[in-house]
Write a structure and sequence with these properties.
185 residues, alpha/beta, five-stranded parallel β-sheet, 8 strands, 27% helix, 29% strand, globular
């Protein structure tokens, strides 16, 4: 396992991305952050904290579960574990920033867009990611990125949500995955 981003690097990168979101949006009016379950949730929360520190405004933060929207759901998920989607109010007419930890093939983002549109028609949807690892199978490109890397197909990037903040590691694709964080009541 090789560390790609330590917690301090993630923090600096997310502070920069939060500033870019504020700048491109002309403030925070109508901005809503939606984290893609699982990996996008801690990243979206960190971004929201930075937006609050930089702008003095709390933006709504939600989550979207893509399990049933995956294009391989019927074959790859014989016993799917479906988590809740928690959308903070109406997203109609809002500027939604969809947040994920790692963007790879683009299929997760496609599924998230399908799921998100079931909740309304936002004015604009942008994509923020901690890491863009390339390897697209679909025409999806993040609007905001902390780091872009090229790694071999036999490797995987895991973002670990740790007490001092998220960090990213590279490991073999067949290595055990990090367990999901414990459910919060």
């Amino acid at each position: 396992m090789r560390e790609l981003l330590d917690a301090a690097s993630v923090t600096r990168g997310l502070r920069r991305v939060a500033g870019e979101i504020i700048e491109r949006s002309g403030g925070t009016r109508d901005v809503v952050l939606i984290g893609i379950r699982r990996g996008g949730i801690p990243i979206s929360r960190e971004l929201a904290q930075w937006i609050d520190k930089l702008e003095g405004t709390k933006v709504p933060v939600g989550t979207v579960d893509i399990t049933l929207y995956r294009d391989d759901a019927a074959t790859a998920l014989p016993n799917p574990r479906i988590g809740p989607s928690e959308i903070p109010g109406s997203i109609a007419g809002k500027h939604v920033v969809l947040v994920d930890d790692v963007v790879f093939t683009g299929r997760t983002v496609r599924a998230a867009l399908d799921a998100l549109l079931d909740y309304g028609r936002p004015r604009r949807i942008e994509l923020a990611a901690l890491i863009d690892r390339g390897g697209r199978e679909l025409p999806v490109q993040p609007d905001y990125i902390v780091r872009t890397v090229d790694i071999a197909d036999d490797l995987r990037i895991d973002v670990l949500d740790e007490p001092d903040g998220p960090r990213a590691v590279v490991q073999a694709a067949d290595a055990p995955s990090a367990p999901p964080p414990p459910a919060t009541p």
